Amino acid sequence: MAILIAVNLVLRFAWISFMHPAQQADFAWYYERAVELAHNQGYNWMGHPTAYWPIGWPFFLSVIYRVTGPSVRIGLAVNVLLSTGIVCLIYALTRMLFQDWRYATCAAVAYTCLPSQILWNSVLGSEELFTLLLMLFFVLYVRGASGPPRFRWLAVAGAMMGLACDVRPIPLAFPAFLFVYEWWMANPAGTSPAMRMASRAARALLRVLCVAIFMFVAILPVTLRNRIAMGHFVLVSTNGGTNLWQGVHVNGGYWWSYNPYVNPLVQVTNEITKNELGEHLAEQYILHHPWKTFLNGWIKIFDLYKNDVNANWYTFRMSVRFHSWLHAIDACTTVAYWVLMCLSLLGIAYTWRRHRDARRWSALLLTFIVYYTCFFFFFPAWDRFRYPLMPLFSVFAGPSCLWLRHRFKHAIRPHG
User: Coil, strand or helix: which one is 401?
Assistant: First the structure.
């Protein structure tokens, strides 16, 4: 662990020392809001209280800035620490699943060697904090649900998931999938099928309720802030309607039009009204174009997984001196990504076939991967949004690396 932490800190601090592009788009917006929060100016946009982007990441950054003073470099250093923390949690989670430090080390090294996970450290995005909180959820949930349930661990796990929703609200509906997972994986007591079914449902419901209650306890302060500051009930953010409307229309990458005849949302300035209008228009589009929505959904999932180039856009593309190298850089980061994904897919198959003890918790990670992927069937998707899944895929790269090493040694060993 000491070596892993040292290597990651050196790599990531070296990267942000070498490459510090201008913060643009979402990243500049996050920084400006964090500075305002640090100066007690509230969470506002264009002179009005806002909840368009979730407050979680700007608020977290503002707490740091209250101590250090506003600085992009300080924010990037925070990214490095969060990203290194993710590596530590990959090690911890893999070791919990497979009870083998070698698997854990291979998984952590696989994530460390993925270029895009280092490149993202040079912009002030919410990816690092959101992913760290997700990994904390899985570590705590496995700790709390192993054997007889320890509800204090499940409660803390739920709180971590709630804090993750304050940063990005994507996991809000995950408790429903978690219930299906717990019900499916339960080992019920009882003699009759009806009793076993009731026992499975009761156990699943008890664990999921513990997680869901504390998850929404962690979200509640944000909801109360939105109610007080904006006068409306907004659970976390107001950009869901806009993103949903955009998502059902798009069939690849980002799309937005400023033509009011094409995009009625540009005529609406109130973000509450815009959110409601976006939801309504998206629902109408889905109802009237079900087949096109279905096809576009699969295209978006393909976009979510096809390559690993978005980090390059916000780092190398911002510097003219790297323009002649862009295609080569995109190819290198994508090849590295697909090597990790092949190892992960092999690791999933190997785990399911050879590691019976690890199947249950591996299924938990796969349940979240399926849930998260399904979310982008309706929302815009490209490789940036896949970032939080990469630590989970890296967990499965651990066993496949050791299995391949064993097979290679066996293949070259001389036979007598």
Answer: helix
Distances (CA, A) of 393 to 117, 312, 333, 389, 404: 13, 21, 16, 6, 17
C-alpha span between 289 and 280 (Å, rounded): 14
pLDDT in tens, 229-271: 998 999 999 999 999 998 888 766 777 888 888 888 888 889 9
What are the residues facing 49 on neighbouring strands? 44
Helix H segments across 113-239?
115-119, 127-145, 151-167, 174-185, 193-230
Q: Residues near 149 by Cβ (< 8 Å), separated by ≥ 6?
A: 206, 207, 210
pLDDT (tens digit per residue) in 202-237: 888 888 999 999 999 999 999 999 999 998 999 999
Answer whether 317's CB lies under 8 Å from 326's CB. Answer: yes
CA angle 108, 314, 136 (to 5 degrees): 35
Provide the phi-psi class of 20: left if phi over 0, else alpha when psi is between -120 and 50, else beta: beta
Going by C-beta distance under 8 Å and a sequence separation of 6 or more, which residues neighbour residue 336? 113, 114, 115, 116, 308
Nearest to 387 by CA among 371, 372, 402, 366: 372
The residue behind tokens 């796969």 is 366
CA dihedral sign, ordered 136, 384, 173, 96: negative
pTM recorded for the entire structure: 0.92
Half-sphere exposure of 294 (CA within 13 A, CB side): 5
Collapsing DSSP states into helix, strand and coil, what is residue 383? helix
Residue pair 286/248 in contact by the 8 Å Cβ criterion: yes
Question: Pick the residue with more confidence: 414 or 69?
Answer: 69
The residues, any chain, with a CB within 8 Å of residue 59's CB and separated by 6 or more, are 34, 37, 43, 166
Q: Residue 380's CB: how many other CB atoms inside 10 A? A: 21
- Give pLDDT tens digits for 112-170: 999 999 999 999 999 999 999 999 999 999 988 776 778 889 999 999 999 999 999 99
C-alpha span between 114 and 258 (Å, rounded) = 37
- Give the C-alpha separation, 320 to 326, whole Å: 10
Average pLDDT taken over every residue of the chain: 89
